[in-house]
Amino acid sequence: MRNAIAAYILCLCASLLLNMSGIGTAEAMPETDAEGKNFIFYIDISGSMSAGYQGGASKMDVAVKLLHAINKEMPDIKANVGVYTFGPHEEYRRVIPFDRDALTEAFNQIPTDFTLAGRPTPMARGIQNLDTTIAALPGSVSFVVIADGESNFGPPPAEIIQGVYDRYGDRVCFHFISFAKKSAEKAFIKDLSEINDCSILVEGVDLLDESARADFIEKVFVQSSR
Length: 226
Hints:
Number of domains: 1
Number of strands: 8
Shape: globular
Number of helices: 8
CATH superfamily: von Willebrand factor, type A domain
């Protein structure tokens, strides 16, 4: 009887911890064959991402929690995965074979505690910096862009993304997780997603739902890997 009560208490504590985190996570999907595939997480860490977003958390807090949830739930893929940020441009993990624990460490290093001042949003500059990386990678390259619809420094992102498509064709695709709140910001990201039919656009808040997140993972990391 005592053991049964102890087990019940442990289960209850685990449930409470998941609820406090704001994002429940499922188990990883089955392994998928994605050889010759490359995925790049490209994450906005500019000042505007410090703004409030959901449940008292900032856009950046929610974004990093989503990254951890996606990493836990995505399948074991035989693919290369990298992590880069813009605003400023930094490499947190170069594009090398998928390793769930290494991605966890990379996401843990992404800053979440910063303010608006002194952090402009050069979305296109970072893509330009990654051009040599794209060129050197064999096979396809899928970007997962986390942004809130601002780009106030450097060349227009639409021109740079269009240039990437012009150079590499269907080898490259940009997907977008939007943290935009204003209508103009939402329209900006929507326009970027419509440059190529391959793109998938989702709202960050929608991915807090486990089923929506599973659908996104299926489309980006599984279907594109077949």
